[in-house]
Recover the amino acids of this structure.
């Protein structure tokens, strides 16, 4: 792979920002994220991790309407946000992979005290993680999805208002 032209990348980013970032942002047509759905190879293992280690309460388990025998289950992330999972028994889906259009990571906001507690829980559960800037913890869930616990408030990132 050749050298990247960083000044050209920065100029293009600025061009896009100038063309599309509005000083007077219109109201969104969306009400919010209903749920983000990930895949689970093992429902109980996923419940033990998200509810037991991370403290996100399991709220419901229903059959997937699109694939019989599949479980659609949900965890409460606060503020009316849900994290959902599907299992697909009988389908060989292969391991988690980052691909264009796929999930890079899911960032979940928690208050700073909870962030410290969850870091301790990850240590106790022997989950490997990378701590960044004293406000982010990146780790993989049991199926390989990258999760970030972020001590920044909703609508803020690195001290910047993003919403």
């Amino acid at each position: 792979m050749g050298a990247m032209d960083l000044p050209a990348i920065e100029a293009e980013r600025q061009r896009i920002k100038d063309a599309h970032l509005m000083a007077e942002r219109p109201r969104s047509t969306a009400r919010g994220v209903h749920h983000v759905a990930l895949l689970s190879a093992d429902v109980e293992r996923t419940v033990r991790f998200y509810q037991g280690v991370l403290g996100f309460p399991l709220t419901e388990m229903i059959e997937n309407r699109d694939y019989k025998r599949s479980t659609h289950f949900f965890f409460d992330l606060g503020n009316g946000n849900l994290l959902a999972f599907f299992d697909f028994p009988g389908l060989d889906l292969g391991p988690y992979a980052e691909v264009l259009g796929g999930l890079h990571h899911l960032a979940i906001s928690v208050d700073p005290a909870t962030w410290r507690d969850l870091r301790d829980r990850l240590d106790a559960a022997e989950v490997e993680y990378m701590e960044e800037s004293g406000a982010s913890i990146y780790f993989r869930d049991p199926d390989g999805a990258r999760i970030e616990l972020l001590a920044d408030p909703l609508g803020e990132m690195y001290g910047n208002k993003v919403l």
